[in-house]
Design a protein that fits this description.
This protein is 23% helix and 25% strand. The protein is of the alpha/beta class. The chain has a 9-stranded mixed β-sheet with strand order 8-7-6-5-4-1-2-3-18, with helices on both faces. Helix 1 packs parallel to helix 2 and helix 1 packs across helix 5. The chain binds zinc ion (ZN) (2 copies).
């Protein structure tokens, strides 16, 4: 990113902070493309804290926010994704210069922090603390000399809070309301967009990666602190070097996709028998039980707790088979994948456009970004396109 370049920005969350930030971004001459991700819709109670009018009540936040942007900047390339960010295929973030996080859920922030770090996408994370009248903007980006990730500053209490908020092991999609006033949300939004400005302009006073700006709203005080990489951080800080895998998910079989990786691994002399398949942001389930007839179903399927994780039962009319805990794997040995599963298409297995899968042998890993050839251009999305095609 060079000073003066027009940039591509993705906003996650169009609530207390995001609804105020998006109109500011719409008026920003340095932005060429704006995407908004939010699975929620506006409600009556949002009127007091969020930058919306009554017409927006009942409308998905992502669609409403982008519609308002179009009223200000009809020329701007926009995209709305009214889905939980955890279900956005990670490759969708490739090509964005900056992602602005305006979410409150710790689980969602951790998901964004890890995903964007892996992809090398810059992440500005904003928050408010209404009880102390504080707003916060943090900047994360993997730097050659290290740098702190979101979790480098996390303590045991943060991880405990993750568990408390999701007692059923859900993905933390229900954002707890911040209780932030419109003024505090607007202040956080303004600081966020100013921080973005400084990064775009490569200004000397910019918020460097690993740094956090905290502004106290009542007396107008503020300070910037800088976190350092913590050796005890629970995140591994690895960046993924992505290869593009030109396939058509509805046609290409899993065997054909893995063949590409096999070819490269063979040349490296690695032992293929030990290779494992890893799907970024999703687990792989191999055994399911049907809630209708109770029978066991053996079938490889990508799975996420926040998604409708059912597979069709071949034995009865119910389609509510759930994965069996011991058969949900983060890394699945290739040797355990049945031939019948290898011969299914990627889409049938649950691997779609913009998913990222890895083939891992011991410390060696190859990472593939699933893309169809006509979608190689990152500016491919036409203005006004919605996420209806998003799984
Ligand atoms: Zn860290
Ligand atoms: Zn059944």
């Amino acid at each position: 990113m060079q000073a003066g370049d027009k940039i591509k920005v993705c906003v996650v969350g169009a609530g207390n902070i995001g609804s105020h930030a998006i109109p500011l971004l719409a008026r920003h001459p340095g932005i060429a493309r704006l995407a908004v991700i939010d699975f929620d819709h506006y409600e009556e109670k949002n009127i007091v804290g969020q930058a919306i009018n009554r017409r927006a009540i009942g409308v998905p936040k992502a669609l409403e926010a982008v519609a308002r942007v179009a009223e200000v900047r009809p020329d701007l390339d926009t995209e709305s994704l009214p889905v939980p960010v955890e279900l956005v295929p990670p490759g969708r973030f490739v090509g964005f210069d900056v992602v602005l996080g305006c979410v409150d859920s710790l689980a969602t922030r951790r998901h964004l922090g890890e995903t964007l770090w892996r992809l090398g996408v810059r992440y500005l994370d904003a928050g408010v603390r209404p009880d102390a009248m504080l707003v916060r903007v943090s900047h994360f980006h993997p730097e050659p000399d290290g740098g702190a990730c979101l979790q480098c500053s996390w303590a045991e209490a943060n991880y405990r809070a993750l568990e408390q908020r999701n007692p059923c092991g859900g993905a933390g999609l229900r954002t707890a309301p911040t209780g932030g006033t419109a003024a505090l949300g607007a202040l956080a939004a303004a600081h966020l967009v100013i921080a973005l400005d400084q990064i775009v302009a490569d200004a000397p006073g910019r918020l460097p990666p690993g740094a956090e700006l905290v502004a106290e709203a009542t007396y107008g005080r503020g300070y910037v602190s800088r976190n350092i990489r913590q050796p005890g951080c629970r995140f591994d800080h690895r960046r993924f070097d992505l290869d593009t895998l030109d396939v058509v998910p509805g046609v290409t079989t899993l065997a054909e996709a893995l063949e590409t990786a096999r070819g490269r691994l063979d040349r490296s002399g690695a032992a293929l028998g030990e290779a494992q398949l890893v799907l970024m942001g999703k687990a792989l389930a191999t055994r399911w039980t049907c809630a209708g007839c109770g029978r066991l179903i053996e079938r490889l399927q990508a799975w996420h707790p926040a998604a409708d994780g059912s597979v069709p039962c071949p034995h009865c009319e119910y389609h509510t088979a759930r994965p069996i805990g011991f058969h949900i794997r983060d890394a699945l040995p290739l040797s355990e994948i049945e031939t019948s599963d290898l011969n299914r298409t990627l889409a049938d297995v649950g691997i779609f456009e913009d998913d990222i899968f890895s083939v891992r042998i011991r410390a060696r890993e190859l990472h593939y970004h699933v893309r169809t050839a006509e979608h190689r251009d990152p500016s491919r999305v036409a203005p006004g396109r919605t996420a209806s095609s998003c799984p």
